[in-house]
């Protein structure tokens, strides 16, 4: 059902092969069973983390629990012994639709992309960025630097693949509406800090803080989504998000102070 949200209301579609013209050979039910088997099987991540039991905890969080409205403290979420922005490609997973990402975040985005295609949207984007590819404002702090964030190209005004000229148009687009309605099923969120104050997207409510595009900060980003479910449940990040969340709560008396927890990414 998380591969194709349509099946939540029409379970008979679990037996259908979606869009076979794109090379799909499995029914929705077979694909979901295969995905669950991959994560429930004993094994390790490329960084050495134990994958056993991960899927069960992640599924419970994404499907029935409440996700955080962003990933706090990405500067401290290096994994596999590597720092933010210095993760080698061999530790990650590559897909043409998302670039390099943390393997679990990449797998989850595959499902988002497939579901979006069924809805008529092409949501390919840009995942991991090294420290050298980020500006000074985001270097070593960005969630892109740990492979847990992706920028959706069609929603970046001025991008080659974008359909929209302005940020307002991107926020008002059917693609953004689909993200709000769908990505939390897969453990992703549109971060609260990336949206104008008061805007609701899924379970997130915009704070108006904004991220950084290049060296300019305080910019809302309709295109940026984060794999919160992976950060909250994957063994590579065990205990790290909890610590960052406690730190963020201590700062809550002044929620409009921009700090390292709320530094976003370059858009290009």
Can you give a write-up of this model?
- The protein has a single domain (69-262), classed as Muramoyl-pentapeptide Carboxypeptidase, domain 2 (2-Layer Sandwich), CATH 3.30.1380.10.
- The relative contact order is 0.16.
- Residues 38-61 and 257-268 have low confidence and may be disordered.
- Helix content is 26%, strand content 10%.
- It has a three-stranded antiparallel beta sheet with strand order 3-4-9, with no helix packed on it.
- A hairpin with a 3-residue loop joins strand 1 and strand 2 (99-101).
- It is an alpha+beta fold and 268 residues long.
> What is the alpha-carbon Rg in Å?
18 Å
Spans where pLDDT lies below 50 across 5 or more residues: 38-61, 257-268
Average residue pLDDT: 79
Q: What does the largest sheet look like?
A: 3 strands, antiparallel
CATH topology: Muramoyl-pentapeptide Carboxypeptidase, domain 2
Query: How many distinct folded domains?
Result: 1
Write the layout of secondary structure elements.
Blueprint lengths: L27 H13 L13 H11 L28 E3 L3 E3 L1 H16 L6 E2 L22 E4 L14 H5 L2 H9 L17 E2 L2 E2 L5 E3 L2 E4 L4 E3 L1 H6 L6 H11 L18
Antiparallel strand pairs: 1-2, 3-4, 4-9, 5-6, 7-8
């Amino acid at each position: 059902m998380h591969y194709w949200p349509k099946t939540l209301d029409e379970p008979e579609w679990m037996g259908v092969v979606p869009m076979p013209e794109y090379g799909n050979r499995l029914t929705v039910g077979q694909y979901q069973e295969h995905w669950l088997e991959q994560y429930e099987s004993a094994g390790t991540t490329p960084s050495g983390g134990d994958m056993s039991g991960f899927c069960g905890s992640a599924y419970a969080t994404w499907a029935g629990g409440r996700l955080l409205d962003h990933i706090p403290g990405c500067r401290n979420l290096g994994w596999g012994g590597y720092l933010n922005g210095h993760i080698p490609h061999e530790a990650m997973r590559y897909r043409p639709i998302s670039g390099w990402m943390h393997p679990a975040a990449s797998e989850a985005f595959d499902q988002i992309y497939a579901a979006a295609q069924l809805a008529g949207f092409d949501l390919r984007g840009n995942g991991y960025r090294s420290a050298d590819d980020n500006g000074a404002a985001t270097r070593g702090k960005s969630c892109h630097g740990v492979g847990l964030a992706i920028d959706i190209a069609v929603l970046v005004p001025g991008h080659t693949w974008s359909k929209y000229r302005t940020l307002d148009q991107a926020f008002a687009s059917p693609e953004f509406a689909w993200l709000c309605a769908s990505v939390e099923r897969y453990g992703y969120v549109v971060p609260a800090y990336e949206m104008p104050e008061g805007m609701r997207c899924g379970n997130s409510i915009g704070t108006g803080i904004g991220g950084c595009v290049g060296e300019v900060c305080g910019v809302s980003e309709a295109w940026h989504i984060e794999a919160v479910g992976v950060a909250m449940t994957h063994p590579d990040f065990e205990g790290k998000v909890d610590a960052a969340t406690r730190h963020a709560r201590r700062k809550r008396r002044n929620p409009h102070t921009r700090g390292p927890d709320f530094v976003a990414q370059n858009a290009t």
